[in-house]
Design goal:
This protein is of the alpha+beta class. It folds into two domains: about 140 residues, Fructose-1,6-Bisphosphatase, Chain A, domain 1, CATH 3.30.540; about 110 residues, D-Maltodextrin-Binding Protein, domain 2 (3-Layer(aba) Sandwich), CATH 3.40.190.80. Helices cover about 35% and strands about 25% of the residues. It has seven helices and 15 strands. The strands form three sheets. It has an eight-stranded mixed β-sheet with strand order 4-3-5-6-7-8-9-10, sandwiched between helices. Strands 12-11-13-15-14 form a five-stranded mixed β-sheet, sandwiched between helices. Strands 1-2 form a two-stranded antiparallel sheet. Helix 1 runs antiparallel to helix 2 and helix 5 runs parallel beside helix 6. The longest helix is centred in the first third of the chain and has 25 residues. The protein is globular, with a radius of gyration of 17 Å. It starts with a helix and ends with a helix.
Amino acid sequence: MSSDLLDLARTIALDAGELAARRRREGVEVAATKSTIVDIVTAADREVEQLIRERVASARPGDAILGEEGGATGGSSGVTWVVDPIDGTVNYLYGIPHYAISIAVVEGEPDPASWTPLAGVVFNPAIGELFTASRGGGAYLGDARIRIADAVPLEQALVATGFAYDAAMRGRQGEVVARLLPHVRDIRRQGTASLDLAGVAAGRLNAFYERTLNPWDHGAGELIATEAGAVVKGLGAARASREFLITGHPDVVAPLEELLVELGV
């Protein structure tokens, strides 16, 4: 079943990406703000999500959908599609070619604490990179299988992170990054969590961590990273959640997590 779901998710993501790229070429404006003035949504976000919802409903009418813009719709099959129509909306708004359509297909409720990922697609239409994974089937960039980078000492690790929309939280996260920087090779903040997870999977990053991620931010990328050999987890024994997510080679994640806790992440 996972392979069939992946085939459908891939096809839908490619079509959604074509629409997003076309709207980007035509010009993008902020349609609304959400949690804060910097938490934006464009008309393209809504249009792309609607396309995805219509395609899923047509092909698999019994499946549930959880989308960033449209919320949750119930289903009867036990399968849920977890959708971020344009991850990295600020990049998209500014014309930075680092945004993605993220589609995960999971078994169970749309809750990272309990779901079982079945298929995941992260597509960056700006440069044509397509990351995919199915449960037990490995992770791919296009047709090439990908694996995480070998473990390195923490001082040689390239670490990505992201920041919350809440100003006070952003300030605290910035303080942690400032204290972390002397202990690692360097920091990257690229603005698209799904692509950060895919970057770990492809060996482009040694680790990634972030707080306040939503299920649609990491659903697909989490499976891609896991199938590429990464550990994806929360603090301690917890699963990845809005509270905290960290991913990378297990031998990099362990000391990085320990250090982040010391720094007050």
